[in-house]
Amino acid sequence: MAQKPSIAKGTRDFLPAEVAKRSYIFETIRKSFETYGFAPIETPSFELSSTLLGKYGEEGDRLIFKILNSGEKVRKADVTALEAGNLARFSNSLAEKALRYDLTVPFARFVVQHQNEISFPFKRYQIQPVWRADRPQHGRYQEFYQCDADVVGSDSLLYEVDFILLFDEVLTSLEIPDFTIKLNNRKILTGIAELSGETDKIIPITVAIDKLDKIGKEGVVKELKEKGLSDDALNKIEPLFELKGDTKTRLSEMKAYLKTSEIGLEGIAELEDVLNRVEMLGLKRAKIEFDVTLARGLNYYTGAIFEVKANGVKMGSICGGGRYDDLTGVFGMKGMSGVGISFGADRIYDVITELDLFPDEVDNRLDLLFVNFGTKEELHCLKLVKRMRIEGVSSELYPASVKMKKQMKYANDRGVKYIALIGENEIEKNMLLIKDMETGNQLELSFDAAVAHLKG
Hints:
Layout (H helix, E strand, L loop, with lengths): L15 H20 L3 E2 L5 E3 H4 L4 H6 L3 E2 L11 H5 L3 H8 L2 E3 L4 H10 L8 E10 L11 E10 L5 H16 L5 E7 H10 L6 H8 L2 H15 L4 H7 L9 H11 L4 H20 L5 E4 L13 E7 L8 E6 L13 E7 H10 L13 E3 L4 H16 L4 E3 L6 H11 L3 E4 L2 H6 L2 E5 L5 E4 L1 H9 L1
Parallel strand pairs: 1-5, 7-8, 12-13, 12-14
Antiparallel strand pairs: 2-4, 3-4, 5-6, 6-11, 7-9, 9-10, 10-11, 14-15, 15-16
Helix pairs in contact: 1-7, 1-14, 7-13, 8-13, 9-10
């Protein structure tokens, strides 16, 4: 008995209708990216492991899919590491390549490698799949698309403003009715660690507090204790989990809290500057909220941090990003400031599906199917099919002269909008009998009139 086929957990097949809806999302995002002056690039689906490892923190590194060496390269495996129980080192020695975890680190590698071929500030966008060995669950997949836009070569806060406007532009265009752009600044988090006396633990602090909405205050406190934070430090940090009021009120409280931290106040000033400019320009639909617990857990953020959530939907963040002042430094190119954002297309798809927001015209349905009545009619219809396609009307001829019931079932299964019934009478009159599959109405039209009707 043949084995039933299946796919790996965390991956999906997409039917034609789903692909059409995903293409609608990609094209909406692409159009806005290009309107804002971003140019497209592409990078390989896999990178050298050395390019990716160590860039995402301890948790991120564990989620990188590694590609097993083949042939003679397997002999290079570090067997002594296996014998010593160092599984991470052993697995790294087995894999010189890995699937990309995100698009940002490969982009940093791209910038360094092509620095003499691009102009700075360099604005790029990239829409490609990424892979993470995460536990599959609702809204979380092991293979998914990211839609990224980044600027490198400038530390101007104008780009932070632009990205907030871009979030608003894209999600409004996709008709998502209610969404919030959450903001923070890594310098504020650094200031908090500084005041708590635990500057050396900035990474575990940010990784833990970023989970506040998932594991709650008690869970965060427990994790911080496990990471070695003192009770005194925890007492200083805990009040920040319960900041109340609107964004201006929260920023004012944080300014008072960080009054002795130069770097913390710098982060507050940057946020205020960005928010003031956004307020001046105005937003279409987005709400903006300062969230001091927003950290996103990634080592490379150094300034602004962004996260976007669709309200009223059980879903994590649908967009994110931030500023990284020296990401290219790990590849030997120092002082190259950058800032970028990412749209989670798969999560956005799930949100739009749940809210039933896809426009009716977003489909993959065939415009016109010519019914096949026989050899003479088939030859006549083939010419008409070609002419319809030239006019931009998606058309095809049923491949065999079989019973009408079978041809109609095919038309219904394909979601065909119209059928053309061309018999001897229509051939003699050089007309097309067009039937609307939704209403059942039939019209006898000339070719030009049929084209106008189908397009209209």
